[in-house]
Write a structure and sequence with these properties.
The protein is mostly helical. It folds into two domains: 31-227, 3-Layer(bab) Sandwich (minor pseudopilin epsh fold), CATH 3.55.40.20; 237-334, Four Helix Bundle (Hemerythrin (Met), subunit A) (Up-down Bundle), CATH 1.20.120. The chain is 61% helix and 6% strand. The chain is built from 15 helices and three strands. The chain has helices at residues 3-20, 42-64, 74-79, 81-84, 86-104, 115-125, 128-141, 193-196, 200-207, 213-224, 228-235, 238-255, 260-278, 288-309, 314-334, and strands spanning 146-152, 158-164, 180-186. A three-stranded antiparallel β-sheet has the order 2-1-3. Helix 12 (238-255) runs antiparallel to helix 15 (314-334) and helix 14 (288-309) runs antiparallel to helix 15. 32% of the residues are buried. Bound molecules: manganese (II) ion.
């Protein structure tokens, strides 16, 4: 075969690879299925990794196929998991959570944290033992299936929470418990049932023998400087999100010539702006500029509402709402990572 045919063949194989490439892939296990014995048995590991995790991954790839979500990193995707729907929330969560779980376990686990992580654990929870007790208590208290987490908050503090199903603290669905996970323990029955049956507490006591604090410490340091922390902090500012919703649902129809929504909801804009102005600006975004912009937002919302109440002409309302939309984007810009 001459080189020309060879290069055509190579190109074809390359293209085939591009078409079938899956956006998300299984992480490699750094140890054998039996490596965590006697704490976690080989059969549980094999089924858990090759069947359960694989299924989450396959379903995630199906859910994002052909969408913009396929271009995002898994953690970025999960920040808006609730909005993206059940398939991404459950399977994306399943893929992220298990990938973390395999990584933080090791047959040669470093049994105690060191450095800054150790100091933070002592400051926040008084000791490593009390942190373990707290996590075990949360894990036992989790009704049904879920996870227990140690995570870094947007304020760069450590915190513990549990979550149902495959949720985790990255997600909007996690309410007040938002941040980047650095240690997660799977408390689904599939993680322990073959060896421990209904004794979740025994599994929880055993698993600390294979939690590798060296890896947790690396994840902790990475989380402290991860831009995702700011994205989560902004996403967790509920009052800003609430204002955004009404703005989007009134401004975009207006752009298309439909002033119905703003004429019926201008009062709501004023109410949301007032609540936003009274809310606490998240620590990372506090600045004189944002205080000024929020003040302008309250005044601008009132101005639009006043025009609506006076039954003003469309063009006046369009001009006023467009200006208000610009002000809103100043706030959005001040809360994004470029600043
Ligand atoms: Mn699992």
């Amino acid at each position: 075969m001459n080189t020309r045919y060879l290069s055509i063949l190579t190109a074809l194989f390359f293209l085939a690879g591009q078409v079938t490439a899956q956006p998300f892939t299984m992480p490699k296990l750094d140890y054998e299925y039996n490596a965590l014995e006697p704490y976690i048995d080989a059969q549980t590991m094999e089924i858990h990794y090759s069947k359960h995790h694989q299924a989450y991954l396959n379903n995630l790839n199906k859910a994002v196929a052909g969408t913009k979500a396929a271009d995002l990193k898994i953690a970025e995707l999960l920040i808006n998991a609730e909005r993206r729907g059940a398939a991404i929330r459950n399977n994306g969560g399943g893929h992220y959570n298990h990938s973390l779980f395999w990584k933080i376990m090791s047959p040669s686990a470093d049994k105690t944290p060191g450095g800054k992580l150790s100091e933070e654990i002592n400051t926040t929870f008084t000791s490593l033992d009390s942190l373990k007790r707290l996590m075990n208590k949360e894990a036992i208290g989790r009704f049904g299936s879920g996870w227990v987490w140690l995570y870094v908050t947007p304020e760069k503090k450590l915190a513990v929470c549990s979550s149902p199903n495959q949720d985790n603290p990255l997600m909007d669905a996690s309410g007040k418990n938002r941040g980047i996970p650095v240690l997660g323990i799977d408390v689904w029955e599939h993680a322990y049932y073959l060896k421990y049956q209904n004794k979740r507490g025994d599994y929880l006591s055993a698993i600390w023998n294979v939690i590798d604090w060296d890896t947790v410490e690396s994840l902790y340091h990475a989380a402290l400087t991860d831009p995702l922390l700011k994205a989560i902090e902004k996403d967790a500012w509920q009052e800003l999100k609430d204002y955004h919703m009404v703005m989007a649902q009134t401004f975009h129809p207006m752009e298309e010539g439909n002033l119905g929504p703003i004429r019926s909801r201008s009062g709501e804009l004023v109410a949301k702006a007032t609540v936003l102005a009274a809310s606490k600006v998240p620590a990372s975004f506090q600045s004189p500029q944002i205080t000024k912009a929020i003040k302008e937002l309250v005044e601008g919302s009132a101005a639009v509402d006043k025009l609506v109440r006076k039954k003003s002409k469309d063009e006046k309302i369009v001009k006023s709402l467009t200006k208000l939309h610009d002000t809103f984007h100043v706030i959005q810009g001040l809360c994004s990572d470029e600043h």
